[in-house]
Every structure is written in structure tokens, then in C-alpha cells.
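Build the 3D complex.
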Amino acid sequence: MSNPVENREVAVRLSGIKKMYKLGQIGGGTLQKDLQSWWARVRGKEDPNSIIGSEERLSGETFLALRGIDLTVYKGEALGIIGGNGAGKSTLLKLLCRVTAPTEGEIDIYGRISSMLEVGTGFHAEMTGRENVYMNGAILGMTKAEIDAKMEQIIEFSEVREFIDTPVKRYSSGMYVKLAFAVAAHLDSEILIMDEVLAVGDMAFQQKCLNRMRDAATKEGRTVLYVSHNMNTIRQLCDRCVVLDKGRIIFEGDVEEGIEHYMGTKMISESCVELTTMKRERDFALHPITMNKIWTNEGQRVIMPVGETLRLSLSFTGDRPFDDVYLRIIIKSADGTPITMCTTESGFSVDTCEKVMEMELDTTRLAPGKYTLSPVIYQVGELGNHVNLDVLRDVFSFEVTAKPGFNNNMVWLSRFWGHHYTAPLRFKLL
Amino acid sequence: MNQETNKLQPSSAQPTQYHTHISAKKRLFQLNLGEVWRYRDLIVLFTRRSFVLTYKQTVLGPAWIFLTPIITSLIYTFVFGGIAGISTDGVPTLLFYLTSNAVWNFFSSCVTQNAATFTANANVFGKVYFPRLTIPISNMLASVIQFFVQMILVAILLGYYSITGAVSPNWWGLLLIPVILLQLGVLGLGVGIIISSLTTKYRDLAILVTFGVQLWMYATPIVYPLSQLSDGLMRTILTVNPVTAPVELFRWALLGEGTILPLALILSAVLTVVVALVGVMIFNRVEKTFMDTV
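Done.
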């Protein structure tokens, strides 16, 4: 990424790539059409069954998985490709790996490509680990001499040395994947294509693989194309990203921006959210108190470094005056998991005219990630039960980002560590 | 249907740089043999794998390579030679059937194994690119090896019978064997890849293939010599059948008995070239996009 754009070497260039799939059953009734199309082509006429050239995504019996992709990938960069299911990510990778061919458009690839669409391709259960390394390596385009030269490194990386001469059918799934990834990671190819392969293996191995890929891009000047739904690994590995949606590129550029784009702009709300007209849930449709607005003065979108306190303002109005009401704020992670809750310790009063409350939400212990806030105004009944006066779900969202030095510069893996971090471990060496 | 070129281009950054161009344009004949050559180690591994895997977890192991043709030939000797009493033109029956069996096995395994190229390897083909032609080639190599192993048996019997004087091979004709093998191999490969290419779309062919190959064997002078047929429809069918002439030539060279039909040989050669060209053409079309239809 250090070089300026103009004098970077191109690794992959796609221009006007379209990929069409036929819908429904293929074969059977299509022989006649096939012959008809073929005959038309032979005579140099237009294929009567072709609808190539149309920009429609879904037209009759065909489906355009990619609708004109133009993309240039430069040498030595790690490009992340994100998008929802059906956005065309896998189709794109399949075209690059030459598993299938585009319906329209041209692809130029400068360098050898090795794909890890699925690790362990060509592994055969009956053959030993070593035999499979040869087989897999050869399928991925290595010669026997190259594999021989790298065998030691591969075995070392795979961590399955003692089982290398055992048939892989006796391997645990983790060992299998480790060995397969080790082969793929030691290819000499200039371009690496990966599709979610890091979703497997234990955490340490995942980290090792990511580092290995990172090195491939930065130190060895190789080009990495990576597809994943795991935004953390995208963040960690890639320095540019492309967001696909319905077969088109909708965003190209910075990783964080891309991820935000993909997660939908709503994921991080504007600094001021209008609540008055927001639809309440059915159970709380009748709300004697109305929360009007929640806002913060911390910029356009609320993105803050880890360890900071979130300062918020909330305005509310009551249908009639209330005394002794409380406010509770539930913090959930972006995937909907409740993290924690905080509430006012003393009651406050609500009036028929709008009141504004300034508050400090202790977010200092939240790990990097995206969070939503659900404010609830309630009263405590005589028997200790609570009566909800206004309930809003996930109306305000913000993001906590890591800062240099946090977690010793490692990415926070909430999958393993949760969303809450405790104060640094205090220790004394004896 | 798609055109891909691989060429080595000099570059300042690296001594050599690979450039692959993929476009949606069509080209009928393009084999990319250079690329296949780069993957030669893969061909060796595939060939080796097909042997290793066939005999894994078997008690007799590779001995089966010998046992299968012996058993088949014994059955033929019993059924066709013994019960049906078909003449073998004076050649000892076991040797006759062993020889015929070896050459037919070679051809038929070229057809049947390649007929499944795309469907059987769909999961590998769907994940990674390597020249698809490596699979048919390694299948053919495996068939060649199997053929030569069977020929060891033939050679032993042949040695015995030529000493006793029961057969008199045309020693110079033996030089033709590689040519015959090449022709049958290319023909089998052609037929096989045509079937496999079409099977990706029309699965009916996969069912027909076992049946068809069996039928083809009886339409070829394998369990009987061509000389046993008088002029008629059957003989015409056999003469048109491109496998007949090479098989007869093969037996003529090896056993000294066989009908050589120059016209049938020419026809067979022409058909082989046509089948091979059509095969390559269809294979080229299908290999690029078969993953979408298989």
C-alpha cells in the first residue's frame, strides 16, 4: 500500500464481467434449445435463446450472478471481498480460479493463482498425509520437486508431524484442515485466493494462518484475495475491500468504510436519533411517556476508542406528570447479545413539557465492536415489580474501536473473549 | 467456448511472469498442451493413485491385476471355446482370449474411465483449476500400464506356445503394437471424453455407457476371430467398427492369425482422427463451464 497508485503493478484485472446461470433443471428439455442455439451460432446468426447483454438480474429462466464487474487488484495488496449471501462473492472467486468461465467480459491474471476455495481439495481418505500433500500440492499447481523442497516446512506448519504417514481418514477434522492449509499456504503462486478457509481450525492456528497470509502480502509481495463473513479477519488481513451486492460492486476502498457499508449505514446511527415517531413494540404501543430524541455531541457517527465514556442526552415528555421514574439502558452487541445494563439510581420526575437529561454511560470496559442501546423508562411498583412507561429497542448504535497498544495490538476476538474486558491483569514477578 | 492463453512474458520484476487471459470468446480447438506439460507431475500422481487406491485394503493387492484377466479369459475359454465351440483359427484358446481380452480391456477402460471424468471429479473440479485434460490422460496411462501388465501373461503363454510351435507370431509385426495402442487409446479417449462432456448435461449417457461398451465388445472380434464370419450384415458392421481392424492387426502380429483389411484400417484411422477432433472440441467447450451444469 505504500506505493502510489499509478506505478503499482496490476495483478488481476476484470473488465465487464458477467456471469449467467440457468434457473431450474438443467438438461432434459433443453437439448432442442441447445441444438437450436448451436445451429444459429454455426450460421453466424444471433442465438435465439440468448439474452446476454441485458442488464436485468433475473430474466426468464436465467439469473445474472454478476452484472458487470470491473475491478483491478494490484500486486502485493490484500483485498477483502464482502457481501451478503448471494451477492456474487463466490461466483467471482470461481471465475478467478478458472473453475468456471464468465458469460461476458475479460479477465487478465498476471501471475499464478492458487485457490483455497476449500482446503483439502483432492485429499483422499485412504492415502497418508504425506501422499496427500503431494497430491494436493500437484492439484494446486506445484511440481514434485517444489513439494519435496517444501515438505519439511509444510509438515512443520501443519503441526501433525507424528501422523504424517497415517492415512488421513484417521485424522481429526482439525488435523485434516491444518495439513491442507499448510499445503496451500506454502504455494509459490503470486496470487492467493481464499474463501472463508480461516473459519476452521483452533484459534491459535487461525491466528497463525492470518499472520502467514499477512506476511505473504506484505513481506513477499504476493496478492491476496480474501472472502469472509468474519469482519474481524477482514480487518486484520486486508488493506482494501470491495463490497458486492446483487452482483455489482457497491463500494471499493477503505476496509472500515467498506465494512460499515456492508453492515448497512444504520449499524452506526447518526449522532442524533429522532425517537418520537419511532414505532414501539406492540406490547408497549401505549406509552404514557414518550422519549423524543437521543443524541450525542461526539461527531457525525459515534465511533470511539476503547476505554472512553459515552456522553448522551435524552429528551422526553409525559402525557401527565410522573414522579419517581427511572431510566434503564440495555447495551447489546451488534449481533443482539445483551452485554450489560445500567440504570439511574434515583428516581426523577417527568412533566408534560419536554425535559432533557444529560448522562454519562460507562462504556470504558466495552471491548472493540459495535453496540446498540435500548432505553427504557420505568416505574417500580409497590411489590418490586416494574411498570414500563416507554420502551425502545436498539435505537442508538455506536462503535468502540481498538487503539494502539490495546490488547497488545491484537484484534479483539469477541467470539472467544466476549464483549467486556476487565482491567489489565496486575502482576508482580517473584 | 472460452479462450484462455497462458504465455510466459518477460518482466522486469521477475524473470518470468505468467499471464492468463480469460474471455468469453469462443475457440474450437485449443488444447494448451504446454500447460498440461507443466502439470505432468499431477498426471503421474493421478495415474499412481488409480492403482494404489484400487488395491488398498485388499488381501491379494496388486495380484488382482493378473488375476482378473486370467479369470475372465478362463471364463471365455469355457463359455465360448468350450460350450459354444467357437473356432479360434487354430490358436490355443486360452492364449487367444488372453490376448483379445488385454487389447479390449485397454480400449474399454479408456472409454469407461474417461466417460466419468467430469461427473466423478466434479467436487475437485469445482474447487480448483488445473488442466482438466490431466484426468483423461492419466486414465489412459493407467490403462496402458494395465495393458502391459497383462501382456506379461500373454508373453509367457506366447513363449511357451511358440516353442511348441502352436503359434507363429509375425515378429516384425510386433513393432506395430505401439501404433495400434496409440490408435486405440486415442479412439477410446475420444469416445470417453465425448461421453463425459455430454454427461454433464444429459445424464442418460452415463447409464448407457456400461451397456453400450458391452454391446460394442460383441460387435468387435474379441471372443471370436473375424474370419469366422461369412459375408453379411454382421461382417459389414464389424468392418465399419473402428476397433475391429486394429484388434485383428494386433492378433495378426502377436498370434500370426488375423484378417487384415486395408480399407477397414484406413476407415478406422480416419474415424479415430474425427472422434479425437470432435472430442477435443466438445471437451474444450465443456471444461470451462461444466461446473454450472453438472
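The longest helix of chain A spans residues 203-218.
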